[in-house]
Every structure is written in C-alpha cells, then in structure tokens.
Amino acid sequence: MTDPIRIFDRALLRQRRDRAAPGLAGFDFLFRETAARLADRLDDITRTFPLALDLGCRGGELAAAVAGHGGIETLVACDPSARMLALDRAGGAPGPRVAADAEALPFADHSFDAVLSNFDLHWVNDLPGALVQARRVLKPDGLFLAVMAGGATLHELRRALSEAEEAVDGGVSPRVSPFADVRDVGNLLQRAGFALPVADSETVTVSYGDPLRLMADLRGMGESNAVIARRRRPLRRETLLTAAARYRDLFAGADGRVPATFELVTLTAWAPHPSQQRPLAPGSGAVDLGDALGD
Fold first, then answer.
1. 49 phi and psi, to 5 degrees?
2. pLDDT (tens digit, 0 to 9) for every residue of the chain, 295 residues total?
3. Total number of domains constituting the chain
4. Vertex 159, ends 156 and 165: CA angle to 5°?
C-alpha cells in the first residue's frame, strides 16, 4: 500500500479554526461572498433537496445564504472544528451539527440529496478521495456544489513572501498553500464518478491599504499556512517587513493600495442516475455534417 497523500497538517488546520472561531464574524467577508455565490447557483436549479450537507461549514455562512432558497429543508452542518460548530448560526435554519473531517465522512452511503461546500476543499490532502466520498454519501441524482480556492489565489502574497525570504533568509519555504487548477479539478470530478461535471472559475480582488492587514485577515479567517513542509519558526520581523515592502513595490496601484486575488473555482456535478442525459455515441448522429454545412 502507498502512503496517504499529506500536504496539509489537518490537525493544525482544526486548531486554527478553533482559535479563529470566537472572532470569525469580524473576518468572514470572503466566506459570506462565496456563500452568496453558491446560493445564486442553487437558485438556478429547479429542484428540491430535502436533506443537504454543508461540508466545512465554519460559522454557518452558507446556511445563512441558502435559508429560504434552493429547496433545502434540513442542512447538516459539518466541520472539523467543534468551536466553529458551536457558533450561533444567526440567519440560518437550525439543523444537526457533526464534528467530522472532509477526509473521513462518517455518513452512510446515499444519505443526502445534496452536498454543498463553501471554500473548504482546498485544504483537503486527497482531493480525489474527498470527491469520491462526497459522491458516496449522495443519493442517485444528488447534487454536488462547491466553491474552493483556485491556483491564482494570493499569487501576489506568494511572490512577495518568496522574494523576501530569498533576500533576507537565503532560501524559500512554502508560506502560502498550493491551490488546484480549475482544469485539473474538472477532471477529478469525472475520475470520482460524477455525472455532468462542470468546473469554472472567477476572481475576486480585495483591496488593502497595507499588506500586513491581509496577513492579519488570513489569520482571523483561520486560513493561514498549514502546509506540512513549511518552516516551523515564524517569519522574522525583517523578513515580514521586507515582504510587505516588496508587495507594495510589485502590486500597489496609483492610490497606494494593494490587491489580493482570490480565484474561486466552482464545481457542479451530479451523482449518476439512469434518467440523466448522456453524450451520444460516436457515429450516432442523424444529420450529415455536409448537409448541415450546405455542401
């Protein structure tokens, strides 16, 4: 047997979410934005989903966004952080709460009509395996709808930190998490056995007066670096200030503010069911291409 893939320290991620939970309301702007976008996608689907799973629910931002929308009757909140689960989910309908990890879902096969995930799956070590688990717990013709960070996320911060570490410390360590490419994620949906998979991306740019404010926001969100290969000692003050200065030099606009890019990769797919549309077999077309083109 091969060793399991381990890129992220999931125990550390849980600890950071526990730490971020009490003050999350002051830093949840991105999660609320992505939740609203998922709710819009859900509104476009003319189906009801009596029982749905909120995978990686954090403070219940998705529950608040879909309340009264999307035909969801019961939404099960699931997160590795018990402190996140304990937060008051104002605006969202109350439902069961389960402390569990996306890498080891404790639910029976074919339990849910929909599995939703709001900006969480980019922290999974084995993304193909997590997608297989999501498909496993879906009922036939159940919906999988998720948004996760894509490859362009925080590219400005990644460059500024790497150049600062190279200049000050004489070497570079991973200070920003790696993120999946939208094309790769689309292929993974197919490999996981989903039907009708679609992956698309869009970017959200947040403007900051100071790059250090961005780093503080990431800590407040529980989204700071949890890569196993990271350096275990904190950034030196000189390195941190050099990174902030480099960030401004590279990316500041005419007003002196700097952008932080978040690429949002949205995944839509369905658990297989015989009623679903299937692509036609090669050679089965009823119209000759030459006739269609007028030749």
1. -130, 85
2. 445 678 889 999 999 999 999 999 999 999 999 999 999 999 999 899 999 999 999 999 999 999 877 689 999 999 999 999 998 765 555 689 999 989 889 999 999 999 999 999 999 999 999 999 999 999 999 999 999 999 999 999 999 999 998 888 765 565 566 688 888 898 999 999 999 999 999 999 999 999 999 999 999 999 988 777 666 566 778 989 999 999 999 999 999 999 999 999 999 999 998 887 765 555 555 555 455 455 5
3. 1
4. 135
pTM here is: 0.88
Cα separation, 43 vs 171, whole angstroms: 48
Beta pairing class for 138-149 and 258-270: antiparallel
Is 210 within a domain? no
Residue 18 sits in which domain range?
10-153+178-203+262-274
Strand partners, 79: 99
Concatenating the DSSP letter of every residue in 22-90 gives GGGGGT-HHHHHHHHHHHHHHHTS---EEEEEEET-TTTHHHHHHTTSTTEEEEEEEES-HHHHTS--T
Encoded tokens for 279: 């692509």
Residue pair 127/12 in contact (Cβ under 8 Å)? The answer is no
- What is d(CA 265, CA 177) in angstroms, rounded to the nearest whole number? 15
Tell whether 219 is covered by a domain.
no
Classify residue 171: in a domain, yes or no. Answer: no
In a domain, 140, yes or no: yes
Tallying the residues shown for the chain, one arrives at: 295
* 49-55, strands of its sheet edge to edge: 97-99, 72-79, 49-55, 112-118, 138-149, 258-270, 195-208
Domain CATH number, residue 117: 3.40.50.150
